[in-house]
Write a structure and sequence with these properties.
The chain has about 100 residues and is of the alpha+beta class. It has one domain. It has four helices and three strands; from the N terminus they run H-H-E-E-H-H-E.
């Protein structure tokens, strides 16, 4: 499959910088890694779990990761005890950085 994207000016350099920092040599490698993360997040959310950032000690929640597609998956996920658990208080929207 071939995929073509239109990337806004300025974001292309940020993408290249992140690719270099992560050691990605190709856009395919970036895409494959991004899809792996997406599939993992989607699977976790469908199981009623939340995605969080936690301080290194593991004692406190820092931020909850949230994106619109996650809300759609949560609505369609089967009801579980975990799905009823309230989310940590602070929320973080993905910024693309």
């Amino acid at each position: 499959m071939r995929i073509q994207l239109d990337i806004p000016k300025g974001k292309d350099e940020r993408i290249k910088d992140w690719m270099k920092e992560a050691g990605f040599k190709t856009y395919s490698e970036l895409f494959n890694n991004a899809m792996s993360v997406f599939i993992w997040v989607a699977t976790e959310v469908k199981q009623g779990r939340i995605i969080i950032s936690q301080d290194p000690s593991g004692k406190t929640y820092e931020k909850q990761f949230s994106m619109p597609f996650m809300d759609a998956l949560t609505v369609n996920a089967p009801e579980t005890d975990q799905a009823k658990t309230p989310a940590p208080p602070r929320s973080m929207a993905a910024s693309g950085d």
